[in-house]
């Protein structure tokens, strides 16, 4: 499934609980996040924007790459894609993204018995 497009936040679940779990509750925003994805084959640029803040990562599916967390910390990982779903292991959570009925569905899941699943649904704009 091609991810290329621009998407605006439509709904989200467990947002504050997720931010609290990863120690970023002070980063909470009420702005509608805009996600822009540029995909050229296996090469992807993934950018999320709110007023006065942009977070962007570039990667090639199946190859080790260096990504940055929301707070700018860099880490190495291999991005995978299976069944049209992107999967990335961040230091504090596991991220997946897929297109379902022209909507971008993103999940961030923290590990452990009391793990939090943060779900974000964005509509194509």
TrEMBL record:
Q: Name one GO molecular function term.
A: lipid binding
Give start and end of each Cytosolic fatty-acid binding proteins domain. Answer: 5-22
Supply the PROSITE patterns for this chain: FABP
What family name appears in the similarity comment?
Answer: Belongs to the calycin superfamily. Fatty-acid binding protein (FABP) family.
Q: What name appears for this protein in its UniProt entry?
A: Fatty acid binding protein 6
Protein's organism: Seriola lalandi dorsalis
């Amino acid at each position: 499934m091609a991810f290329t497009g621009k998407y605006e936040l439509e709904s989200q679940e467990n947002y504050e609980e997720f931010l609290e779990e990863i120690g970023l509750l002070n980063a909470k925003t009420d702005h509608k996040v805009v996600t822009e994805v540029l995909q050229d084959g296996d090469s992807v640029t993934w950018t999320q924007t709110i007023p006065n803040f942009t977070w962007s990562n570039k990667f090639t599916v199946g190859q080790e790459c260096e990504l940055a967390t929301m707070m700018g910390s860099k880490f190495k990982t291999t991005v995978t894609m299976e069944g049209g779903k992107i999967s990335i292991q961040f230091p504090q959570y596991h991220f997946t993204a897929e297109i379902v009925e022209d909507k971008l569905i993103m999940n961030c899941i923290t590990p452990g018995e009391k793990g939090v699943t943060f779900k974000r649904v964005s509509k194509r704009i």
